[in-house]
Backbone:
């Protein structure tokens, strides 16, 4: 049962990446699609990234519990992230320099952007180091979420290895304080120098905007551990969950569709923790396989996929057929890479440096 509950997270990843791909292939770039906005029904698919953040909140706490040192944690994180980023960046760069003579996606043409992508750091932060004398960007725009992930890793790993016994207290209290600070800062409209600087800083260190999702994923891990050990959730833990949930409602109440989507994410996690049999249908080979390869698929799908749709669209009588075929090709390619290349690289790196 425990294994099944953990494996369903791969299916969650599969759902999240499908949401993001549908957003990019049907709603994000309507000016580039031959079918324009005819299939623009997936605008809310962009929140698949927020589902990824919730999954990360759960997985990173799970990972920390099995990690002996800060060095081991970061080594494991980077061998998980870096090989795929390296190959995806090179692939995207080569692809666009070979085929994109119209500079449809200019940022994919510059080698310097490969270097930026490999740092996982927001380009504007790197530009500030050069005093904005060099224009930098990611090879693909979808890479922005990796910087958010890295910030979360820093926050979670710092508190965990600073004091494991009080980790949950420090992590959740800090997250809540940062969320409240961010909310208040968003509603201050004074052109004060300090306020302006703080808002500018928030644009760079943007984890603060995603903390409700990481926080929910983290508290779901606490619930999962309690359930596995047959421990009743404490009032404090339930209060943390209620706070994160109410915070999302309070900050998104004007968009009922978005709230409904977030409610689905929360419901899926609750079902996974307490009623896994109810969502056993999600734990299938197709979704699992897509989920396992979702990281590389996320890295390569947007610019390459939209370019293929724009330049090599075949009208099969229904506008969504060609995009679906490209989605299938990208999934197959990502599964092959994850299985036969990335997996072997990670295994080799683990053998070289054992903790």
Residues:
């Amino acid at each position: 049962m425990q294994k099944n509950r953990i494996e369903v997270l791969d299916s969650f990843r599969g759902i999240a990446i499908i949401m993001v791909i549908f957003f990019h292939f049907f709603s994000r770039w309507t000016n580039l699609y031959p079918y324009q906005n005819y299939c623009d029904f997936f605008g809310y698919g962009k929140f698949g990234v927020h589902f990824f953040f919730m999954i990360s909140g759960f997985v990173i706490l799970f990972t920390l519990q099995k990690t002996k040192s800060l060095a081991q944690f970061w080594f494991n994180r980077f061998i998980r992230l870096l090989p795929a980023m390296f190959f995806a960046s090179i692939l995207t760069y080569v692809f666009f320099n070979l085929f994109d003579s119209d500079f449809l996606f200019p940022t994919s043409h510059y080698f310097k952007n490969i270097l930026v992508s490999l740092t996982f750091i927001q380009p504007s932060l790197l530009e500030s180091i050069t005093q904005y004398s060099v224009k930098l960007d990611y090879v693909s725009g979808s890479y922005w979420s990796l910087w958010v992930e890295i910030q979360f890793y820093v926050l979670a790993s710092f508190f965990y290895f600073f004091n494991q016994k009080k980790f949950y207290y420090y992590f959740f209290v800090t997250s809540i304080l940062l969320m409240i600070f961010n909310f208040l800062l968003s509603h201050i409209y004074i052109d004060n120098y300090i306020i302006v600087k703080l808002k500018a800083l928030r644009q760079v260190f943007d984890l603060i905007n995603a903390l409700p999702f990481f926080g929910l994923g983290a508290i779901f891990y606490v619930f999962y551990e309690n359930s596995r050990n047959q421990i009743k959730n404490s009032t404090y833990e339930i209060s943390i969950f209620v706070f994160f949930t109410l915070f999302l409602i309070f900050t998104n109440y004007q968009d009922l569709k978005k709230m409904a989507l977030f409610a689905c994410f929360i419901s899926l996690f609750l079902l996974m923790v307490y009623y896994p049999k109810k969502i056993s249908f999600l734990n299938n080979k197709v979704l699992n396989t897509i989920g396992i390869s979702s990281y590389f698929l996320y890295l390569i799908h947007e610019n390459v996929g939209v370019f293929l749709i724009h330049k090599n669209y075949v009208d099969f009588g229904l506008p969504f057929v060609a995009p679906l075929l490209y989605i299938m090709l990208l999934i197959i390619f990502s599964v092959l890479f994850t299985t036969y290349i990335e997996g072997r690289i990670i295994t080799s790196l683990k053998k070289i440096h054992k903790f």
Summary: The two ends are 29 Å apart (CA to CA). Residues 2-352 form one domain. DSSP finds 14 helices and no strands in the chain.
